[in-house]
Amino acid sequence: MVAARQNGDIMQDTLFTHHAPPRPLAEELRPQTLAEVIGQEHLLMPGGSIGRMIATGRLSSFVLWGPPGVGKTTIARLVADEAGYEFIQLSAVSTGIADLRKVLAQAVRSRESAGKATVLFIDELHRFSRPVQDALLPAVEDGTIVLVGATTENPSFSLVAALLSRAKVYTLDRLSGPELARVIERAEARCARPLPLTSEARATLIGMADGDARYLLGLCEEILALDRDGDLTPKDLVEFLQKRAPLYDRGQEEHFNLLSCLHKSLRGSDPDASLYWAARMLEGGEAPDVIFRRLACAASEDVGMADPQALIQVITAWQAFERIGLPEGRLFMAQAINYVATAPKSNASYLAFDQARTLARATGSVPPPKRILNAPTKLMKELGYHDGYQYDHDHPDAFSGQGFFPDEIAQPEAPVFYRPNERGFERDIRKRLDFWARRKRPPESLQD
């Protein structure tokens, strides 16, 4: 009976051994040393920030910030290994304060019993709430742990200031085309056969990965599992594989980054770059209204009175888009983008209003001149309201030259905020203002 049970156990173990699911290729190829890591040389080389820390054998807390699939978790684990630290990994998605306290207690025991420091790696660190982030601070300050965090979001926006002041932030780059090509070569060496791809399809595959090595290795697994003759062409590849969705978070840093790129391209009179960034945002799932709002802002802030039609073109295109929708609506968006980008530029109105606001804040409640106030009652007339007002249409060119600023501000002369430039329609406006300036008379001459 015992022998039979033992034989049964052996058979059962063998059965499970033979049918254990294979590990993902990305896990199989995970680097075992920092020297094997592809990319991030600016941090890992001997003169890099992380390389120097490892050389000294003393680690300080840091945050790895970068897109998915560039090696954040791998680098954190290998840094701890090569520096001789204990390594504990947590995910902010599934960890609460109670779990964190258990890990911190374990780190204390490790330091006191074995004299070994602990690297606490927290993936998706930005997902921790403020109280949980604050709970990390004492352990980081007293050396109980060396905190290594990983985040895909800008730490300046997602981490509390106290934690940021205690941890350096290292930026990881998306992998380049040549670096992704090296990843493919490692996958082929591991599987002992090349990917069935034409050279053009190989380049297409690298483009589909969009800098993400983990995603690329997933694609390689799918291709290697194919049962077909001949090499895949780019067309075959696109039909077979789902292209990686562009990195774009409509509520976070990437949203603001691409908005900034679009606005600066419009301001810089580059229609091609403007179209590109708008297309990037649409492809990433951005709401078209967001793009049109930015166009409207640029049409006023950067084009302004140099071409007053710019704002009209944007609003008209926006309304047409709302009526028609995609895909045809992209035509209206493109037309508005091209109009704003190629229009003459002037920020004179923008600067003028900022200066006016500054003066308004400084002068507070300075009373307006009574001559430009209405006098609907007898008492107001007796108080001098509307007395001396010049009706502009009663004067040549419908211009009286009277002053409209408070008297305290207009002494010795009224301020000038709006200074049109010589570009576009503002050239004509400047001529008008110069003409009116010559026609103006001193305030005392208005009292006819």
UniProtKB/TrEMBL annotation:
Record key words, sorted: ATP-binding, Nucleotide-binding
Superkingdom of the source species: Bacteria
CDD domains reported for this sequence: AAA (cd00009), HLD_clamp_RarA (cd18139)
SUPFAM superfamilies per UniProt: P-loop containing nucleoside triphosphate hydrolases, post-AAA+ oligomerization domain-like
Domain (AAA+ ATPase): residue spans on this chain: 58-175
InterPro entries: AAA+_ATPase, AAA_assoc_2, AAA_ATPase_RarA/MGS1/WRNIP1, ATPase_AAA_core, DNA_pol3_clamp-load_cplx_C, MgsA_C, P-loop_NTPase
Protein role: DNA-dependent ATPase that plays important roles in cellular responses to stalled DNA replication processes.
PANTHER family (alphabetical): ATPASE WRNIP1, WERNER HELICASE-INTERACTING PROTEIN 1 FAMILY MEMBER
Protein family (similarity comment): Belongs to the AAA ATPase family. RarA/MGS1/WRNIP1 subfamily.
Name of protein: Replication-associated recombination protein A
